[in-house]
């Protein structure tokens, strides 16, 4: 008798694997509520009587722990699998939000929400990305970009809902609702996650000659390539600009462009659409155009958007605000697809967890530098306008770095180019 063909969710693996992408999208919707932080900031500033820099601290610490937890747990993916790590991380995320809802000071909120919640997201985030990267060797950029689409789209749902809840029950009670919801969604949807069998590839797909010749690099081998350092620097600059934009979107709308709190919160949801669609768009561009061209285009757009906001901020025009911030959120979303897809393309998938974990530290450093820069300049000069010119300059440096360092992947049989 002929053995039955393996199936995935009752379908051929080539079709069933898309379920993992949808699960990843939904999980990222839950953990992406962090991107709605800007609607919490002003209520928290009033509640705790703190300034702009202090109200950014929970957000900064959250993003930093998110980023720096990933390289610590990346190696555990192969040992324990994505299911266990995703479930454990989901519990930690929920606990962080719930403890944050009981905070009596900004320091306590930073420790509970920032440290615990950020570490939980760092554990969860890599799981659906690694699953998508392994099940889709043929369409890696698009699959990973779609899986993380939910992280960017999350504020489209969470920002207006959180704004309404904050107006009704206050910012801390709102955190409790978010925490319970995130815990339930992440745990339930993390249960089906798993990697494909070793050596699996889609039926009828043959790797290109370049892809077939690529070597699987360990973390220590990866850091000796110029591609890694070029990718890290570009990822750092892209996330610095994007996470800065996310952290100050609502306050800039109100203070600089004179929008109401409700309008600014609603536009955060609009920007989330751009953040979300930037992931599959730039992921597909990586598949089609390669890393270097895609990175140059992304960082060039960041420079143009930052200059537009710097030059047009004094006019109070809502159009400048919407166009500029939409572009910055779009480009940040792009890097959350470019970086994982390129890590797999440059270094293979055998050591993907620890490799991408190290690459992702650029996100954490960008979060810290970008938001401290924004908060410090706001407190120093009394306006967020001053931050956009240095962001534009950094983006132009990133364009040069991408053009110089993001070359082809390392191939078997020859040294890194």
SSE string, helices as H and strands as E: HHHHHHHHHHHHHHHHHH
Q: In CATH terms, what is the fold-level topology?
A: Growth Hormone, Chain: A
What's the N-to-C terminus distance?
51 Å
Q: What number of structural domains do the residues give? A: 1
Oligomeric state of the chains present here: single chain
What is the radius of gyration computed over CA atoms, rounded to a whole number of angstroms? Answer: 21 Å
Residue-averaged pLDDT, rounded?
A: 83
- Number of H- or I-type helical stretches: 18
Task: Estimate what percentage of residues fall within beta strands.
Answer: under 5%
- Going by CATH, the architecture would be Up-down Bundle
Going by helix content, strand content and strand pairing, the class is mainly alpha
Strand count, sense and barrel status of the largest sheet are: none
The residue fraction in helices comes out at over 70%
Helix/strand layout:
Layout: H1 13-16, H2 18-31, H3 37-48, H4 52-74, H5 76-100, H6 106-135, H7 140-147, H8 149-169, H9 171-190, H10 209-213, H11 219-222, H12 226-255, H13 261-289, H14 291-312, H15 318-347, H16 352-359, H17 361-381, H18 388-405
Helix pairs in contact: 2-6, 2-7, 2-8, 2-9, 3-4, 3-8, 3-12, 4-6, 4-16, 4-17, 5-6, 5-9, 6-7, 7-13, 7-15, 8-9, 8-13, 12-13, 12-14, 12-15, 12-17, 12-18, 13-14, 13-15, 14-15, 14-18, 15-16
Please sum up the structure shown:
This protein is mostly helical and 417 residues long. It has 18 helices and no strands.
Describe this structure in words.
The protein has 417 residues and is mostly helical. It has a single domain (13-405), classed as MFS general substrate transporter like domains (Growth Hormone, Chain: A). Helix content is 78%, strand content 0%. The protein has helices spanning 13-16, 18-31, 37-48, 52-74, 76-100, 106-135, 140-147, 149-169, 171-190, 209-213, 219-222, 226-255, 261-289, 291-312, 318-347, 352-359, 361-381, 388-405.
